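Let us work through a complete example step by step.
Step 1: write down the sequence.
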Amino acid sequence: MAFTKKKIAVVVVASLAVLVLALVWLPGHWGAIFPGHSQAAPDLKVVVERIANGDATADFKFKTIPGPARTSAATFATFSVVAGGQGVNGARVEKLPHFLLPDSPDAPGANFFFRDGSDGGRILVDLNRTVGIQQINTYSWHKSDRGPQLYKLYASDGAPDGTSLESHGSSDLLAAGWKLLATVDTRPKSGEPGGQYGVSITSPSGLIGNYRYLLFECQRTEEKDLWGNTFYSQIDVIAK
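Step 2: predict the structure and record it as tokens.
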């Protein structure tokens, strides 16, 4: 069968389209295609800001988003790791809602991160009651690859099924009733990745929703060595 140039072009374009769709939707590859691309649910908004290491201070002062809060609804929540393991020389996950910020770009003991060499994990936040959420803000700081944030954020008002949370990377969360609020990827498209990062998830209506549970499904930012899991400094949940 003879192929004309037009037929060949159609086949090539179709093949590329299939490849792109496969990479985007294939489980386990989210966030690995387009560094620096963050996306929220249609009714929400994600704002990302980075402060280069040379300009970063322990005050975490951002221009476009709020800095870490001394107290928030997260302060009274229960934080737990439900998939993956905590870094052995890092802070425990329970420190994340408290105003205990690192004072340098390489302070493992003042940040939470998943075990070195692992592919991230999941953090469950139980607010212990249904809360009208206005903002969800996350902060990180590291001199290199552990500065950027790469995670999916889910929310639920019902009691979560514990068995569905243990398998990191599984695709059963939506079927179990969780709502995907945002996919966050703050890795720079070029240049050095180090610095302070702040992410603020909001809604133009002023209310993200009424939820009791939040689930952060975190991914490592690189795979060239064992040290690709983000140094998370603080997580705030601002009630309306």
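Step 3: interpret the result. The chain has two domains: 1-30, 34-239.
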